[in-house]
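Hi V.,

Quick status before I head out on leave. The structure for the redesign project is tokenized and pasted below; the design run finished overnight.
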């Protein structure tokens, strides 16, 4: 269908004419009283909204999904490894408390669905926030008004134009600052260990799931099949633990765990030594299933491509020797995720060449050096981009590094929103309390996905 172009002005009225645009061009960005636009209503985007309420700043939150926290809903059946204590943002809590919200027991572990239903949803429904959220609004491009990336003259005085799809139209919203909190969950890495997406893999879409599928509500697809789970991190372990439950009722289910680690022990992580006990427990449980032969492990295996004859063939090398693994009916790929920069390609960005995190953040989070708990708190200064007043926060700010924690993201947006509200002193303060979780990334040197 042909898409039309509409422009939303800051007062919410629609359909600016070309003449209006010319007039606006001469108006300084700071004179226009434009909102800050947050993109993505996950936990970090919503926390940014709570801070902007606190700072009395106008904002709009655009969310691609038909409900908030769309990405988390897709893994809603999974239990988090950090207890409620670390999952609730301070500004959000203050607003929720004032509305009569009942706080969950801070020492328990929510599932993704509980995180949404008991915290994020009530937060999004507060009178100070709800009217500013637009669902079903996928952002497809951002630029400075009238200018592409090349133009420098008057750039910082110009507002941002945010292009988004809504009700089969493409609309434009103006903003004085933009916070990109779109995460990475919707953009998985391929099975191929080189990271290259090949059409063979895309052609197998009916037999591959990415992420952590809800096996319980899809038992028919997996029962009594030969399934390969690809990846050596906690997502793969979560997937395998659910499949092992299915295997109890359906003993012909065959589980093969394929990863790149030198040995499976590296995948078990901190186990009893992990300060986040729930995460340590994953390692303990999976070790038992491997030791008792319920799961066959093939490692170190480097996948070069997937093929299909009667079933799926996985082509690659095992211990450096060419090897083809055959007979798979289903694949579940947990090889991590990567940020998508398409929508911000007309902005000036400083992205780390290796991790694809924010450039200044990379030395703090390089998975070769840091485990989850040793990441230093950081805020506006570290996340500042060459494009003034544009920030990437949350899981996306970590690029391909899998070690992001919500608590870190909450500190990021506290600092950025303070800065955007003119409170430089508060933006420089460090207010993060993280659990001491240094063991979660043990044996990181050869791991691609050690944390989540
Ligand atoms: C299985 C799993 C378990 C985890 N457990 C923990 C844990 O125990 N503790 C912890 O601290 N962290 C945990 N994490 C890590 C992390 O905190 C979460 O991934 C968290 O959801 C990241 O929040 P976010 O707001 O940055 O991104 P997301 O939650 O991914 O939210 C991004 C939002 O942006 C929207 N969006 C995307 N693109 C667009 C677009 N173009 N336009 C508009 N909207 C868009 C999406 O629909 C989504 O709603 C876990 C992660 C996973 C995957």
């Amino acid at each position: 269908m042909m898409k039309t172009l509409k422009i939303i002005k800051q007062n919410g009225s629609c359909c600016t004419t070309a003449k209006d645009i010319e007039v606006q061009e001469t108006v300084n960005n700071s004179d226009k009283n434009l909102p800050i636009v947050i993109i993505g209503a996950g936990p970090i985007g919503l926390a940014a909204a709570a801070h902007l309420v606190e700072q009395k700043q106008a904002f709009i939150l655009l969310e691609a999904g038909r409900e908030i926290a769309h990405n988390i809903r897709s893994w809603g059946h999974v239990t988090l490894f950090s207890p409620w204590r670390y999952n609730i943002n301070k500004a959000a809590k203050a607003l929720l408390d004032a509305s009569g919200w009942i706080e969950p027991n801070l020492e328990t572990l929510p599932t993704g669905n509980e995180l949404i239903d008991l915290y994020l949803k009530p937060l999004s429904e507060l009178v100070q926030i709800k009217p500013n959220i637009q669902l079903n609004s996928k952002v497809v491009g951002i630029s400075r008004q009238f200018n592409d990336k090349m133009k420098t003259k008057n750039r910082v005085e110009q507002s941002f134009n945010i292009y988004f799809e809504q009700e089969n139209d493409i609309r434009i919203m103006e903003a004085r600052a933009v916070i990109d909190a779109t995460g990475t969950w919707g953009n998985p890495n391929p099975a191929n260990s080189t990271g290259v997406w090949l059409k063979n893999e895309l052609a197998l879409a009916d037999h591959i799931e990415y992420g952590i599928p809800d096996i319980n509500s899809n038992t028919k697809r997996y029962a009594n099949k030969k399934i390969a789970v690809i990846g050596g991190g906690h997502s793969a372990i979560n997937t395998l633990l659910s499949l092992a439950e299915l295997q109890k009722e359906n003993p012909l289910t065959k589980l093969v765990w394929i990863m790149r680690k030198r040995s499976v022990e590296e995948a078990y992580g901190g186990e009893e030594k992990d300060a986040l006990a729930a995460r340590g427990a994953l390692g303990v449980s999976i070790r038992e299933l491997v030791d008792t032969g319920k799961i066959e492990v093939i490692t170190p295996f480097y996948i070069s491509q997937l093929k299909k004859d009667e079933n799926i063939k996985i082509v690659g090398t095992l211990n450096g020797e060419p090897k083809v693994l055959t007979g798979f009916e289903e694949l579940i790929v947990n090889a991590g995720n990567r940020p998508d920069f398409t929508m911000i390609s007309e902005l000036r960005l400083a992205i780390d060449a290796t991790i694809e995190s924010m450039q200044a953040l990379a030395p703090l989070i390089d998975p070769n050096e840091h485990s989850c708990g040793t990441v230093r708190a950081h805020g506006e200064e570290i996340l500042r981009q060459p494009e003034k007043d544009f920030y990437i926060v949350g899981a996306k700010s970590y690029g391909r590094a899998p070690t992001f924690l919500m608590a870190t993201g909450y500190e990021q947006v506290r600092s950025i929103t303070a800065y955007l509200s003119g409170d430089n002193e508060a933006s420089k303060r460090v207010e993060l309390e993280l659990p001491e979780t240094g063991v979660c990334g043990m044996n990181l040197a050869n791991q691609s996905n050690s944390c989540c």
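Above is the designed sequence. The longest strand covers residues 301-308.

G. will cover questions while I'm gone.

Best,
W.
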